[in-house]
Structure formats: structure tokens, C-alpha cells
Amino acid sequence: MEDNKTDFGFDTVAESEKARRVAGVFSSVASRYDVMNDLMSGGLHRLWKAFTIQIAGVRPGQRVLDVAGGTADLSLAFARRVGNDGQVWLTDINHAMLSRGRDRVLDHGKPLPVAQCDAEKLPFPNDYFDCVTVAFGLRNMTHKDRALAEMRRVLKPGGRLLVLEFSQVWKPLAPVYDFYSFKILPWLGKKVADDADSYRYLAESIRMHPDQETLKSMMEQAGLVKVEYFNLTGGVVALHRGFKI
Length: 245
Ligand code: SAM
Description:
By secondary structure, this protein is of the alpha/beta class. It has helices spanning 15-29, 33-41, 44-56, 73-82, 95-107, 144-154, 174-193, 196-208, 212-221, and strands spanning 5-8, 11-14, 63-67, 87-92, 114-116, 129-135, 155-166, 225-232, 237-243. It has a domain at 31-167 and 215-243: 3-Layer(aba) Sandwich (Rossmann fold), CATH 3.40.50.150. The chain is built from nine helices and nine strands. The mean pLDDT is 96. Bound molecules: S-adenosylmethionine.
């Protein structure tokens, strides 16, 4: 079978190789993931996620799917909103990340269903969820079009998909942002997690990810409608939202 090429940061690798290398990155960072998130973003990731929760508008009794949910920040926040009659599924392809997510969920006294699965092949029926979210996960997926189509498939008509992801920064901020990403981030990664390579991958993968308008078109091509996006922190991050009709 033909193995097409794709990006892994700034490297070009076989598609089959990308999933393996992404798995390597997240298995390596899982134990320090939360502390590094706070350090790298100066706590901003909490605000970006809080905004996502607000825009999601999830109500008691609804069903939510957290794709690439990792250590469960979004799942935990949604669990508080859906109440006892709702449902929040925490999912991720990576066992190390998901284990930490599951432990945090249990520590918070909010047992949730957890599933290890690939966003490109979601093990859920059609038209099942009111809301699907993917935070900082899409960038790492080999076939983003397939993942978006899957997320749309499992949404109920009227349901919404939210994609929170690094994006294209406002031009005047680019020199400082580049310095931070390519010099400070790998240094921090080395000091705190003894893993400069994973944080170099983070910086590179952000540069390779589609910009705001391109991702909007990709979501429309996946069949989502009324797609709009919100730039956060000068476009360091963008939140895209689209609906299934
Ligand atoms: N959503 C969490 C957050 O915002 O803190 C975790 C984000 S973490 C940067 C990216 C996650 O995407 C990792 O846990 C990784 O395992 C997951 N991931 C990568 N490729 C995936 C795929 N094809 N399907 C599901 N999850 C995937």
C-alpha cells in the first residue's frame, strides 16, 4: 500500500511514521504536560480553554465529546456543566496522556467515560453528541480532513464542533513569538522536562498548521456550516466553531 508523505514539524515523513512520532512526543511529555502548559503559556491556556467552554454553550443534560482530550481540562469543565443527566466522553489516542486524564478525573470525583481512540476513526454512532471539542489536538493528526469529517459525523444535527488550536499570529508579534518559540520553548523543555525535542516539535508543528482562513475552509469542506473563528492573544491561538445541520 502506498505510504504518502506528510509533515512532522519541519520534517517530511511517511504518513505511517507521523502517528508513531506523535505518539512518542506525547508519551514523553505526559508526566510533565500540565506543569509545562502553565509555564509555556504563562497560564494563558486556562483563559483560552475558559473561552472555549463559554462559546460551547453546553447545557445540563447534553452529550459532549472531548477529542484528543489528554489530561482532561475541557472534559472536567464540561462535566460540571452537563450535570448528572448529561454525558462527557474523554478520548485520546495516547495511553500515557489518557491515563493522566483519567487520574485527574477521578481525583476531581467526576468519573467520566474514557476511550482510547483515533480521532480519524471515532467509535461512536452518527448524530450522537450535542458538542464535540478538540483542543490543541488537530495539529497532530495525520489526516485532518478525515478527523474533521468524523467529528461532524458523530454530531447531532444542530450540534457544534469547536476547534481550539495554535494559529497564525498577528504579523507585528511574529519576531518576538518566533524567538520565544524556537529559543525559549526548547530551552524550557530541556530544563523542566529534559526534553528539548518535543518542545521543538511543538513550535514547528504550530508553523505547519493551517492558518485561520484555511482551517475555516477545511471545516466547511468537512460539511460544517456557519463556521466562524475568534482570534485569541493576537492569533497565537484561534477558536473555530462550526455547526452540523
Ligand atoms: N486537549 C488537551 C489540552 O488541551 O490540554 C491535550 C492537548 S495535547 C497538546 C494533544 C493531544 O492530541 C495529545 O494528548 C495526543 O495524544 C492527542 N492526539 C494526537 N493525535 C491524535 C489522534 N489522531 N486522535 C486522537 N488524539 C490524538
